[in-house]
Amino acid sequence: MRNTDKQRQSGCPVAFGLDTFGDRWSLLVIRELMFNGKSTYGEFLEMEEGISTNILADRLKHLEAEGILEKEQDPENRRSYRYRLTKKGRDLAPVMIEIIAWSGRHDKRPFALRAMVEKVARNRVQVEREARSVG
């Protein structure tokens, strides 16, 4: 069960952030929306990390309830939805960029998003501007 404002255990801002967006799968969904242009349930299922359908459905519902993303019916396929970041979700751009930069400094294994790490290192301001414009 997820915490709501009434159930929060502490007034700690770190705890609030973790309750709102801080699990692995939620951050990966945000990554896909923010940096990879994905917006549908099916596209999220194709993530390299291999999210299961029940976890994805739960995270999308949670992120929507927290105001991080919103969904709208796909005009081309009335049976499916498209997701997009809200302003609150786009405000996570500096957090996501810092995670990318931190990982680039500390994870020396080869990984697929090395180009993104290098892009952040070259021009963090531009990457943040682009990430905040997604929506």
Automatic annotation (TrEMBL):
<dbReference type="InterPro" id="IPR036388">
    <property type="entry name" value="WH-like_DNA-bd_sf"/>
</dbReference>
<keyword id="KW-0804">Transcription</keyword>
<dbReference type="InterPro" id="IPR002577">
    <property type="entry name" value="HTH_HxlR"/>
</dbReference>
<dbReference type="GO" id="GO:0003677">
    <property type="term" value="F:DNA binding"/>
</dbReference>
<dbReference type="Pfam" id="PF01638">
    <property type="entry name" value="HxlR"/>
</dbReference>
<feature type="domain" description="HTH hxlR-type">
    <location>
        <begin position="12"/>
        <end position="111"/>
    </location>
</feature>
<keyword id="KW-0805">Transcription regulation</keyword>
<dbReference type="InterPro" id="IPR036390">
    <property type="entry name" value="WH_DNA-bd_sf"/>
</dbReference>
<keyword id="KW-0238">DNA-binding</keyword>
<protein>
    <submittedName>
        <fullName>HxlR family transcriptional regulator</fullName>
    </submittedName>
</protein>
